[in-house]
Amino acid sequence: MYSAAPGGQGQWQSQKPESPASQVVSQVQKSLGTMSLEHLDRIFSLAEELREEEGTYLGPKDPSHADRSSDSGFDLMPLVIGGDEWARIEAGLSQRVRAWNLFLRDVYSGQEILKSSVVPYEIVYADPNFHRGCARLPGVTSSYLQLTAFDLQQDARGQWLVVEDHLGVAEGASFALKKRQAMRQVASHLMEGFEVLPIEDFSSQVMDLLQELVRLPDGRARAVLLAQGSSDEYYLDHAALARQMGVSIVQGSDLVVLDSRLFLKTIAGVEPVDVILRRLSTSLLDPVIFDPGSRYGVPGLLSCVRKGTLAVANGLGSDLANNRALAAHLPQIIEYYTGEKPLLASPQILELRDIDLREQVADNRDAYVIRHAWKQGPSHEWVLRHMPAHDWNRFWQEVESSPSEYVAQRIPTQMSYPCWTSSGSRSQPVTVRAFGLGHDRVSPCALAWTGATSSLALSAGQSADRIKDVWILRSVPNAPTVVHAQAEEAPKRLRLTSRVAESLFWMGRYAERAEVTTRILRIVQTQPWPLNDSPASRLRQPLWAAMAAVSGHTPDFFLKPIRNQVMAREVPFYFLLDRNHPGSVLSSLLSCRQNAENIREHFPPEVWSVLNHLYLEIALYAEQSSTEQVKLILDDRSLHQGVISQLDELTGALEKHMLHNDAWHFWQLGVYAERSLMTILTLKEVVAPEIGGVSRIGSVSSSNLDLLLQMLAGQYAYRSLYHARPVAARVARLLLQDQEFPRSALFCLEGMRRALTATLGDRPAKGSDAPLKHCSRVITELNFIDMATYFPNAADGVSPFLGTDDLSDVPAPEFPQKLSELKELVLDFNVLISDHYLDHQVVFREPELFDLSSSR
Amino acid sequence: MIFNIVHTTAYEYSAPAIESFTELRVRPRQHNRQIVHHHVTEVTPRAALEEFTDYYDNTVECLSVPYRHKCLTVTSRSTVETLPHKDALRGLDLSVSEAVRLNWPQRRELFDFLMPSMHAPITPELEALAKQQLPSSGSFSESILGLSSYIYETFTYMPGVTDVRTPLKDVLQKRQGVCQDFAHLMIAIIRCAGLPARYVSGYLETESVRGTDALVGATASHAWVEVYLPSGIWVGIDPTNDMLEGERHVQIGIGRDYHDVPPLRGVFKGAKRQRLSVMVTVSRTTGEMVPG
């Protein structure tokens, strides 16, 4: 058992200067030292650019909260571990995995180790992660541990110590892959000439472990990665791993249990799932068996495992092995199951249920860190040296009242490693996280980070800059590279899950709504206030009605001064920046961003970055809406212009960076569905208004038609077709029936039809094409509208290029009714999409628990 | 005695529910004082039942109804024969502290029933009650029976005042509750004294038959307590009726507390609310089987 000797920090360089690793380190240092300042600057700015492109790949989701003060930039200096040294680490960690696996198997069946008192049974029975519901589960008896992680530190004498075991869920590997990728991009020459083990096949090795776990006789098992979603601080790691493995990242609500079989809900129906790589603790997986409050699990998941139709990695209940009081007994556990002595040491763990140890810690508390036995994370670790005296007394009382829940560890004296950042060279202690694959391998894909004195969880506030590339040297130089033989696989096409399709659909709708609202506002806000008693005001009333209609109000919203509080000068704020108005541009962008945030892994970072930037900017303006600067850009409409061009940028980013796959099609569906609706609503208010079901048609002024075209970005289109001032019949035809104008209802419906056809494929399943049929029906309706019947006074019908200026512009009384019908048809489409691809049955709600509460 | 037991639970949802998943613990246990002659569980709408044995050896049946449904009805029919109980407490010459000490060799096996649990926590208030009711020098048998009488006399059986989520703290304050609360209370106090106690979910013949007394707990399933004797026997005590478990008690399952053996637990999506109705009949028979 190791306990750190007092004294200063060791220096990496001083250790065994002749070792291959230290030779590599000095060579890298030398090449860095000989680089010109310009060269280094270029490298660091390239690294910064990469980071910007990636977004914050390890860090808070909202850049405004990023705490970069402790960062000093991209670290170019790798952590180098020699091949022989790594082999010893691998042997030691594999021994741990094997021992823990046998332990879990035993504890969830015969409990022999507890009966023979090698491990105090109290630790196991009192740990909430010992799930009695997982005992004697068939299916998991062979192997509990597929992907594991271990945090290692090197003490002052250079001995590697395992400071933490992660046996339930092992996270963070994608950060190592990203760092390696970045290193190759900015400074590939540093690596030249060294035999560094490749790490890129990490995800395929994990996939192989999952396949081994299921071993389907007739082909590959269908795997999914089950995670909590964007609220998890490791979400980006989950998403990256799923992407590299080529499996869907799903949440509990994506899955459903039917007859002891697990299914994934997709836009093409439900698909069976054979194996889950879980990124959730066991207690969250099945609300019927474990934590009934869990919103992330799948009711009945355990019944699938019990029936043997589903495998879960890591095995259900393996979270128990994270218990730090158990870890105190690891040497005995290893010896009990394998007959061996531990190959790798750990810092000594003191169990505070022992009163003598408690006294020892209390008397000498500066030297210790106290940790909760089973709760994870920085909020369950207490460095006593940093604790004020009054906090200490309260804290210690808590420890004494349930001492078996706490362990203490002496704060180790760590070795420091060279770092090389833009602020220069310095030495820092480093923690390495190594990933175990199955029972006998450790991946060379290891993660290292600087600055933490203990293995505090690598949590969200930490930035990518703290990550070091880890180079594991090949033990026999020049040995042939053992490349994991990977058959050339056809690129994976995963069926889009219903939840993701729904989010994309709504992203499209909200983005489009924001655009139309901004466009209409830009025109309307300069028009005379509709309540003024002047001919000009009355003339423009239809435009105000259109503004109201597209943002969820009744058309007469502006004509009821007592009921609404919106005054003329507040209009721009109300429609653009008002958080409390669900129809405002800010609210639409917020909803768009929320939908995007939930499915961030389904579109490229470029898209997220545009959308996020747009939202944050508008949100900032909303906060500062009382300042003169914001008032000014609201008044002179430069804010509007900015929003429109950024939304154009968003569309462009989607167009260019997204695969034009099912996800893309659902985004398009949303955009077109919303746009057709907006076009119809706007046209109706300006050309053929109704109030209370009574049409109020009359001659439409040419200037209003001109403004209508401006509101819907149709001026250019109209002028290209007709070389004359706008007339109602022609405007109506352009907005409803034109095949080339991207805002016409027909164009949108055709777009929807294309998207649906592409999604459904050549042979849609029976009944699944109802939305497509509906779409075709609306297209037929649109094509059959004969404008001549709705504008009977237009002498020549509406044939172009006549240029007659005195066509009468009064539509027939049936026209408003026709537009209402069209509106309803478009709205029906939303319901059909929902029923067929998204909900499969009815709208989701959170699962509810019911309990028989009337036992008497 | 032989009983025919019919236990019907019906859920009516405020709107159609989907993807419901339910676990049932309604099959009576088989042990040396209780023989299950017949058991069948029927579910409407139709759904396949999957059966397994849980950590405490209770039989669990589970079912999933993936499609839309407005109500879910579960009817379990059992024919159970109970045998007379020997009074294991009688003639036991043992103090509370001796019992604690004698149990020590079995501490690992008993640990689950010694630790506080979700519905039976250890609090200073309960510890004080344990000191008072189960003094370490007091006679084990007398103290345990005394505790049952204490609960029976101090607390009023009053349906509707508490539900599953009511903590013991509130029960202590209100001095009212149902069998479940009294069982949890008794378990918590016994555990505070360092003795193992467990929760029994079951049925009770409540009607007065041929001169026997009518018992409390009529409308639904019943709950009581088992306490461990150093001789290796669990003795059943029913604090709601202040009596030892007898031939009129039928056990379904055992656990640390209610949370381990709810007759029915499940999850569904769709509806906001549900209405629950439970009907239990326990009737004596001559031993003829009732066709399922």
Question: Please, could you describe this protein's structure?
Answer:
Chain A has 856 residues and is α+β, with helices and mostly antiparallel strands. Chain A has 4 domains: 17-214 and 323-340 and 413-472, no CATH class; 348-411, Dna Ligase, domain 1 (2-Layer Sandwich); 496-657, no CATH class; 659-844, no CATH class. Chain A has 28 helices and 24 strands. In chain A, strands 1, 3, 4, 16, 17, 18 and 19 form a 7-stranded mixed β-sheet that branches. Chain A has a 4-stranded parallel β-sheet with strand order 6-5-10-11, with helices on one face. In chain A, helix 2 (37-54) crosses helix 6, helix 17 packs antiparallel against helix 18 and helix 21 packs antiparallel against helix 25. Mean pLDDT of chain A is 84; it is low at 1-14, 56-71, 453-462, 483-488, 796-807 and 840-856. By secondary structure, chain B is an alpha+beta fold. Chain B has 2 domains: 2-82 and 262-285, Immunoglobulin-like (Sandwich); 96-260, C8orf32 fold (Roll), CATH 3.10.620.30. Chain B contains 6 helices and 14 strands. Chain B has helices at residues 96-102, 107-114, 124-133, 140-154, 168-174, 179-192; strands spanning 2-24, 34-44, 50-53, 59-65, 69-82, 156-157, 176-177, 197-204, 222-228, 234-238, 243-244, 249-255, 264-269, 274-285. In chain B, the strands form 3 sheets. In chain B, strands 1, 2, 3, 4, 5, 13 and 14 form a 7-stranded antiparallel β-sheet that branches. In chain B, strands 11-10-9-8-12 form a 5-stranded antiparallel β-sheet, with helices on one face. In chain B, strand 9 (222-228) and strand 10 (234-238) form a beta hairpin. The two termini of chain B are 20 Å apart. In chain B, 43% of the residues are buried. Chains A and B meet through helix 5, strand 7, helix 9 and strand 24 of A and strand 1, helix 2, strand 13 and strand 14 of B.
